[in-house]
Amino acid sequence: MYVSFASAGSGFDDLTTMIYKVIPMMMQVDMFKNYIQRLTEIVGVDESKKIIGSALVILSAGTNDFTKNFYDLPVRKLQYNISGYQDFIQDRLQSFIKEIYELGCRNIVVAGLPPIGCLPIQETISSQLPLTRICLEDQNSDSISYNQKLSKLLGNLPSQLHGSTILYADIYTPLIDMVNNPHKYGFEHTNTGCCGTGLAEVAPLCNALTPTCEDSSKYLFWDSVHPTEAAYKFMTELFLKQFL
What is the extent of the structural domain holding 35? Predict the structure, then answer.
């Protein structure tokens, strides 16, 4: 059984959800509480606790916080340097983990940041005429330092949250390898998406009216932000080997 409370465009920073007008992360916790109540009504208290306690919870957020609030619409730069904003986001993440732990979750996987500077939309926003499309090394470096902090944070949490297993999912390494060695994975295009021009389209801009590439398996990205099914397949196989 799979249950998702995800809201596209959300993040740990409430400012992110205001920009995208999506469901805040803490409201997703409220939705989870409602789910637990409904589950308890169906299977009873003991079985409900067993289901929640043995479930695998996957948290994947943070990219939108940095792209919108720090790089593209740099509102948070007025308050934080990059290290300070990383700490702010991870404080929110830690609070989120502790909240769902109190609700009974014990097995949690947290994804780090991707190489943000290699997302097609970030390359497009930073490009100058004539159009140059290369990864932004400063944003990638920020992702690396964030992930290093995150890995350390998650490694320390189980000692505070008795009986928990909290794992760090490194999505940066496989994605940057796909960017640098595309033919190893069968990709021919790594800096444009399959949808539309591949330069700026994202989410609802990819629809039935938008032309797409003939073979998405040759593309690393589906739109200008999200990887293709082929890319996710490679990452899933890697994580299954790593965690299981």
Answer: 1-170
